[in-house]
Write a structure and sequence with these properties.
The chain has 430 residues and is of the alpha+beta class. The protein has two domains: 297 residues, Deoxyribonuclease I, Chain A, CATH 3.60.10.10; 92 residues, no CATH class. 28% of the residues lie in helices and 22% in strands.
């Protein structure tokens, strides 16, 4: 099987021009290494729009309320990428709407008045830069299974934020927007779609992390009702039922190392669509992510307020692009352990006993001097007396030294104390 190639999207001239995947398009190996866009994280949102055809205003200017609503939502919430399914629009084109790049991939012509299928990808400025850094590569295979488009993709390159590193690692992502056939389609259409999904996953470059988002039209369940073999494929959350289409996706995920990120995070509700026939809530819109992304996936959830009016709710995937830096913790306050410095350890109660011993020794020394020296009428002691008092108090209170070497502090403590007190006495005398 020939490897899958990404090709640059065509720029519209007077009218949007269709663009198809051409086997002759290939990446030029002589191109310099692309630079990479760098920021902390990015949000990717996916929703089935259930139609987003352009209207016509009174002055003849075409308008698209749903597209404008999505652009405003991206500006308000900081969403980086939006994947849209079932636009019901034709042609393949690129436009700019209020700073947002819109890439559309639809059939050459519609097979009904309402329109069917059609896919679009919206990119904010940062995501647009990442797409351009990767060479503006898109995947637009055309009508692969029936008379409408069901798969389109783009390639992105981001730069990890690593502090204190000269070379920064690049993160390559192949992002696919898919609209799978529903259960009412023929088996032939379903098989063609499944074959194309196999081809996309099989030919994904090893350097690229694959992310698939969109309307899968399948219930894939969770791992709670399995034998444990799907631990790396399904999470413990979400609806637990699986249908035939869901089984096909499980096989695809197991074969190519993908997991349903929307089943790994606990939320209040997971339903994204109400079945028109049974009126039952179903979880059929998902994000499938490369297992190598690991802890980069911060969250995957449904959005209660849809981007546009539709019978589907949107799902949101948050991806961490930068490397999480460890929070700096303040060092706990420390106190000087004089016992360790001197080679002798004291405990807390010894401090009070030491002070009491110094006081008693001072009083005893004063009384002794009065007895021995009748002419001495002072109430204070000299340097030598104080030094002797401190030494005797320490010997009486401090525990035995744990080291045989008294250390530099004990060896010179008396000299330091004498010099200090002598300096003070001179200072006061002057």
């Amino acid at each position: 099987m020939a490897p899958l190639k990404m090709c640059p999207v065509a720029m519209p001239t007077a009218e949007p021009q269709p663009h198809r995947l051409d086997d002759e398009d290939s990446e030029n190996s002589d191109n310099p290494r692309p630079r990479a866009t760098s920021f902390e994280h990015i949000k990717v949102v996916s929703q089935n729009a259930y139609g987003a055809k352009e209207g016509e205003e009174l002055n003849g200017v075409a308008s698209n309320e749903k597209f404008e609503s999505i652009v405003q939502y991206m500006h308000d919430t900081g969403t980086g990428i939006v994947l849209l399914q079932e636009t019901w629009m034709v042609k393949t084109w690129r436009r700019e709407i209020n700073g947002i790049t819109v890439l559309h991939h639809g059939p050459d012509k519609s097979d009904c008045n309402r329109g069917r299928g059609g896919l679009a990808i919206f990119l904010n400025k940062e995501a647009t830069r990442a797409w351009k850094d990767a060479g503006e590569k898109t995947y637009q295979p055309g009508c692969i299974a029936d008379t409408t488009t069901r798969i389109m993709g783009i390639q992105l390159v981001f730069q990890e934020k690593r502090k204190n590193q000269e070379r920064r690692k690049q993160l390559w992502i192949n992002l696919l927007n898919v609209y799978a056939p529903h259960s009412g389609m023929t088996d032939d259409i379903k098989h063609k779609y499944e074959d194309w999904m196999d081809r996309v996953c099989q030919t994904n470059p090893s350097k690229c992390r694959l992310i698939i988002g969109g309307d899968l039209n399948a219930t894939i369940g969770n791992r709670n009702n399995t034998d444990g073999g799907l631990r790396n494929t399904l999470g413990p959350y979400g609806h637990d039922k699986t249908n035939d289409s869901g089984e096909q996706y499980l096989r695809l995920m197991q074969t190519y190392g993908l997991r349903a990120a929307t089943t790994y995070f606990k939320h209040r509700n997971y339903a994204t669509h109400i079945d028109n026939r049974t009126k039952r809530a179903r979880q059929i819109d998902h994000f499938l992510t490369d297992v190598r992304l690991g802890k980069r996936i911060i969250d995957a959830r449904r959005i209660l307020t849809p981007l546009v009016a539709s019978d589907h709710l949107a799902v949101e995937l948050t991806i961490r692009l930068g490397v999480a830096s460890k929070a700096k913790t303040k060092d706990p306050p420390t106190t000087t352990n004089w016992g360790r410095i001197s080679g002798q350890e004291t405990n807390q109660p010894d401090k009070k006993a030491y002070n009491n011993a110094v006081t008693q020794l001072n009083l005893a020394t004063i009384a002794q001097k009065r007895d021995q020296e009748p002419l001495w009428n002072g109430d204070t002691l000299g340097v030598r007396d104080i030094s002797k008092t401190l030494t005797e108090a320490g010997e009486a209170v401090l525990s035995e030294p744990r080291t045989t070497d008294p250390g530099w502090f004990v060896a010179s403590a008396e000299k330091l104390l004498v010099r200090s007190l002598t300096f003070e006495s001179r200072a006061f005398s002057t």
